[in-house]
Design brief:
This protein is of the alpha/beta class and 131 residues long. 29% of the residues lie in helices and 28% in strands. It has 4 helices and 7 strands. The strands form 2 sheets. It has a 5-stranded mixed sheet, covered by helices on one side. A two-stranded antiparallel sheet has the order 1-2.
Length: 131
């Protein structure tokens, strides 16, 4: 990525996501792993949030699984939201999480509102968005 170029991120099964194109909506960047039980528990809530018109959920596999293996893993786990092929954190100035699950909540203006750890609920995320 060039110094002046806004970041874009490769995703599984689709064109790259232009970070700036997500302005005006909430973005949840969720770090997960297959071995993480709370990650499995929050998938239905994240799928529901992703179906809202003003929210985009982006999944990042903590273990670095990529390509068709990542696509198959996401399908096996019931993940319906977009899976990124790379961790966007470094390009966005974020420190990678040390615990899972981790959800970075980005406000419509592009600012990082909060980093949350542990399984998230739809009600909990919506309450944060109303603050």
């Amino acid at each position: 990525m060039g110094g002046c170029q806004p970041p874009s991120f490769e995703r599984i099964g689709g064109p790259p996501i232009e970070w700036d194109a997500l302005r005006g909506q909430w973005v949840l960047v969720n770090y997960w792993a297959e071995w993480c039980q709370p990650c499995w528990e929050e998938i239905p809530a994240l799928n529901a949030l992703d179906s809202a018109p003003d929210i985009t959920v982006l999944g990042v596999n903590f273990d670095g699984v990529t390509g068709s293996e990542l696509s198959a893993l996401g399908a096996r786990m019931g993940i319906e939201f977009t899976l990124l092929a790379q961790d966007p954190g470094p390009a966005l100035g974020w420190t990678s999480p040390v615990g899972l699950p981790a959800t970075f909540v980005v406000a419509p203006d592009g600012s990082l509102r909060e980093a949350r750890f542990g399984a998230q609920t739809e009600a909990g995320i919506r309450a944060l968005m109303r603050r």
